[in-house]
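Reviewer 2 asked us to include a model.

Predict the structure of this chain.
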Amino acid sequence: MTALDRITVNPSQCGGRPCIRGMRIRVSDLLDLLGAGATPEEILTDYPDLEREDISAALLWAARYIDHPRLSA
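Predicted model (structure tokens):
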């Protein structure tokens, strides 16, 4: 499994937003927690189903999403 394979998108789950490994934990949830100052250790304690690699995958996904070029009309 590559890092980005940990990010799943299912139109029937969480409104089609990217989630971690099919769970109902959205990438945006992790990014919000990190942005609010939570450490990876705190997140892993609060969400025992998560793995450290999930947090890294969320950050990688966000970096790639932000860097994706957009064409304007």
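The mean pLDDT is 94. The CA atoms of residues 15 and 38 lie 25 Å apart. We have added this to the supplementary material.
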